[in-house]
């Protein structure tokens, strides 16, 4: 028997007399508060409740079943009213208990709080402090860092974004969307970590104890960095005394390493080394340093060492502004240590950029400085650039508004004549101001007017003879060109007419002395004024159309077909240019001549109207639509055209025995076919066919009936299907060359030609980001020299987040370059690439 002390017994007796009074006061207070507060006027978080099941408590009650086993089978969803800060909380669990705003949750616990989603076997949640203590299969998604954390247990403060997790595997840059909580990577290279402990110190700040970091997807990353402690702050992860592990094999020790956590974070540092081999360069060793100035600008600078040639500095600056604004500077050079007679060193500097001021004004620069053509031929990695002897630089500003445009342009054009003496033709526009008015109606009349006016200061220099021992130069030539026109377009019975008249007046501050064939004209200080009168008409008859709807045609092409024939006839007359030989040549303004010509052409088109759209696949899926193949497409277009010249010598502008380039020839073809006076031009054919987004065929042909041969033929075919890509191009030029003065024009025209015939071929399977094996090849063959000038073969294999590429490349460009290169590239996702195979020179 237990016996209470007397003092305690007296207190109990007094309490028994007071208890009824206290209970009546509490009941009265509760009833009063219930009546006053029942219509709750403040908002609450609302969620869908689970439907009641047998044995479950009635709706509106918080009671749990008496049988604990039944409680484990019945999930409970409960909405907790928003705390004073206004943050809604939603809880799901098999069992829930609450005492003093502390919730004890067991069994399939799921909490939604702010951007957090927390899952665990057991969770204790303190509503007042925002603290969460979780145990068993802890999964945390969301937060401002888009984190996905799995751990055995942990403690979090959801209001302060702090936490302490144990036995962690997680990823930053991942969010869950959709009804099935599908994981979506919000960064192209999500940052993954593992660790014995992970301490979250705040938004974007973590400390990983005895852990790893990688950009690969877990649980089996291709590479990772192991360290005793990894610190994450300001979008950057850093660690000391780190081991780099590749495919589960430790490779090397790093005393200090940094890694960006997201794609917007960039840190300065030393990039992976460059290693390669070449028969011309020898062993290649290089290194680059990367330095970001801001979020939208950075600099990469480095140097390569060629064991046979010397040092090769290089660098690149990039800037990205608002809208389409950008500015890039790239350069590479070679300090060749060979003797002067064999030295092929040089510098290639490229600048390009754009700056917009509103919708109507912009400035653009696209400039290049090349110190030596031999350097480009010998060391340029791109075959198309290596064989290009032209260097073009342009800087212009333009303003367009209400049908008027003004632009100020600075141009520098270089055409290298050979790689031995580095002689060149150079043409400068320093500067050129052009005012242009687009066609608009003249008052209330049906007449339309427009025109172009330009003012320029020009310069030109070129070799004066074949030995390049002298140079013809003309500098500081002012030119003013005034070129207005009037047009009266109208239609009559389905026919479209456009008569037009124009006048042109061009003033030159200097002129040239005409020279005999084979000699370069000389400059003279006398000014010259060129005037002409122009008239013409464009006549377009009605197009002839017919539709074809045969079942076999619909089955073959997927829809109806429309065949259209569009004829076009133009007559152009120019008179008054009687001083053509006195005009200095700088651009297309200076090659205008008298003419009286008839231009006639016929264009055939096949339109296909697809009847059955299909889901977008391949490249089609890059567009905004889900269905492709519908609507009408221009399936095939074929233009055939020719000119008839009434004025056969173009007012004396044609010099027999040499190639003459006039405005009328450039309007028709890029082939300089005019070597003597003639009546008919070559017949040109332009065929283009695009049966689908995967197929492209083009064929440009120039045939001269006077000579009875093809002057040029350019064929290009391209096909893409899934991972397969194929292209082939054959480019053939057989145009009349400039014959010697000892030949008669007739003999020269039939014998002398500029023979050029090259084929380019490429085929590939896969791509740079395709998992597994990819391979491709590219060649350039010269049929005239019967020589393979360029050939390359590349093979790549990509694992989960690393890849290895190997390429063999062969150049044979005469005496300037005979080189075989062995290139490779090893890429780590989120880190970079190491090796000598650069992205711009890859086959794919």
How many angstroms does the end-to-end distance come to? 94 Å
- Unreliable stretches: 1-75, 177-188, 739-752
Q: Portion of residues in helices?
A: under 10%
Tell the overall outline: globular
Structure summary, number of beta strands: 49
Mean pLDDT, rounded to whole units? 81
What structural class is derived from the secondary structure elements? mainly beta
Task: Supply the number of helical segments.
Answer: 7
Q: Bin the strand percentage.
A: over 45%
- Radius of gyration, in Å, reads 39 Å
How is this structure best described in words?
The chain is mainly beta and 844 residues long. It is built from 7 helices and 49 strands. The protein has a 26-stranded antiparallel barrel. Strands 1, 2, 3, 4, 5, 6, 7, 8, 11, 12, 13, 14 and 15 form a 13-stranded antiparallel beta sheet that branches. It is globular. 22% of the residues are buried. Residues 1-75, 177-188 and 739-752 have low confidence and may be disordered.
Task: List the main descriptive attributes of the protein structure presented here.
mainly beta, 7 helices, 26-stranded antiparallel beta barrel, 13-stranded antiparallel sheet, 844 residues, globular
């Amino acid at each position: 028997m237990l016996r209470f002390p007397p003092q305690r017994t007296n207190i109990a007796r007094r309490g028994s007399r007071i208890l009824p009074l206290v209970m009546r006061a509490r009941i009265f207070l509760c009833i009063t508060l219930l009546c006053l507060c029942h219509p709750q006027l403040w908002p609450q978080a609302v969620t869908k409740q689970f439907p009641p099941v047998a044995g479950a408590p009635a709706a509106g009650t918080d009671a749990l079943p008496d049988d604990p086993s039944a409680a484990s089978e019945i999930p409970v969803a409960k909405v907790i009213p928003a705390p004073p800060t206004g943050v809604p909380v939603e809880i799901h669990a098999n069992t829930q208990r609450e005492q003093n705003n502390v919730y004890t949750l067991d069994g399939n616990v799921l909490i939604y709080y702010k951007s957090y989603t927390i899952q665990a076997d057991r969770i204790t949640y303190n509503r007042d402090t925002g603290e969460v203590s979780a145990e068993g299969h802890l999964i945390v998604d969301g937060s401002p860092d888009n984190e996905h954390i799995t751990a055995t247990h942990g403690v979090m403060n959801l209001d302060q974004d702090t936490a302490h997790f144990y036995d962690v595997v997680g990823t930053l840059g991942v969010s869950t969307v959709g009804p099935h909580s599908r994981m979506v990577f919000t960064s192209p290279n999500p940052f993954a970590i593992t660790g014995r402990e992970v301490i979250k110190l705040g938004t974007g700040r973590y400390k990983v104890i005895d852990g790893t970091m990688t950009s690969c997807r877990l649980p089996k990353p291709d590479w990772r960095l192991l360290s005793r402690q990894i610190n994450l702050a300001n979008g950057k992860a850093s660690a000391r005394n780190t081991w780099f592990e590749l495919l589960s094999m430790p490779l090397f020790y790093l005393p200090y390493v940094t890694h960006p956590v997201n794609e917007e974070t960039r840190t300065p540092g030393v990039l992976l080394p460059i290693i390669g081999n070449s028969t011309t360069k020898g062993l290649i060793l290089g290194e680059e340093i990367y330095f970001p100035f801001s979020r939208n600008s950075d600099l990469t600078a480095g140097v390569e060492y060629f064991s046979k040639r010397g040092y090769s500095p290089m660098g690149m600056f990039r800037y990205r502004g608002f809208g389409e604004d950008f500015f890039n500077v790239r350069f590479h050079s070679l300090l060749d240590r060979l003797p002067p007679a064999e030295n092929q060193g040089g510098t290639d500097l490229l600048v390009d950029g754009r700056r917009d001021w509103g919708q109507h004004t912009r400035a653009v620069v696209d400039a290049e400085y090349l110190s030596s053509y031999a350097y480009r031929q010998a060391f340029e990695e791109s075959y198309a650039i290596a064989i290009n002897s032209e260097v073009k630089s342009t800087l212009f500003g333009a303003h367009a508004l209400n049908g008027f445009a003004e632009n100020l342009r600075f141009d520098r054009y270089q055409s290298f004549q050979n790689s031995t003496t580095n002689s060149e033709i150079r043409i400068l526009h320093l500067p050129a101001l052009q005012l242009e008015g687009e066609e608009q109606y003249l008052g209330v009349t049906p007449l339309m007017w427009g025109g172009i006016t330009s003012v320029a200061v020009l310069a030109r220099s070129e070799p004066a003879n074949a030995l390049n021992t002298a140079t013809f130069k003309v500098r500081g030539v002012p030119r003013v060109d005034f070129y207005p026109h009037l047009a009266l377009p109208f239609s009559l019975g389905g026919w479209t007419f456009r008569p037009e008249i124009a006048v042109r007046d061009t003033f030159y501050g200097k002129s040239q002395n005409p020279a005999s064939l084979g000699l370069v004209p000389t400059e003279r200080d006398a000014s010259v004024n060129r005037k002409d009168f122009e008239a013409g008409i464009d006549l377009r008859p009605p197009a002839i159309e017919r539709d074809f709807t045969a079942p076999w045609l619909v089955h073959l092409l997927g829809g109806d077909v429309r065949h259209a024939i569009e004829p076009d006839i133009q007559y152009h007359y120019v008179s008054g240019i009687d001083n053509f030989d006195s005009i200095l040549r700088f651009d297309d303004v200076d090659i205008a001549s008298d003419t009286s010509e008839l231009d006639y052409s016929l264009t055939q088109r096949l339109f296909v109207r697809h009847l059955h759209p299909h889901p977008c696949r391949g490249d089609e899926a890059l567009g905004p639509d889900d269905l492709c193949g519908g609507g009408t497409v221009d399936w095939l277009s074929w233009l055939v055209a020719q000119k008839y010249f009434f004025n056969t010598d173009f007012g004396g502008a044609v010099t027999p025995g040499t190639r003459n380039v006039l405005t009328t020839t450039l309007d028709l073809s890029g082939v300089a076919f005019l070597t003597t006076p003639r009546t008919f031009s070559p017949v040109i054919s332009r065929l283009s066919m695009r049966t689908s987004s995967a197929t492209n065929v083009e064929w440009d042909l120039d045939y001269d009936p006077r000579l009875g041969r093809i002057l040029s033929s350019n064929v290009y075919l391209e096909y893409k299907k899934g991972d397969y890509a194929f292209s082939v191009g054959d480019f053939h030029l057989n145009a009349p060359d400039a014959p010697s003065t000892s030949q008669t024009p007739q003999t020269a025209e039939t014998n002398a030609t500029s023979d050029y015939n090259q084929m380019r071929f490429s085929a590939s399977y896969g791509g740079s980001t395709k998992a597994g094996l990819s391979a491709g090849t590219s060649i350039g063959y010269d049929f005239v020299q019967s020589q393979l000038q360029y050939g390359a073969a590349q093979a790549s294999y990509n694992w989960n987040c690393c890849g290895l590429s190997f390429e063999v490349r062969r150049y044979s460009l005469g005496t300037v370059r005979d080189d075989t290169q062995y290139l490779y590239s090893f890429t780590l996702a989120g880190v970079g690439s190491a090796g000598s195979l650069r992205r711009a020179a890859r086959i794919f």
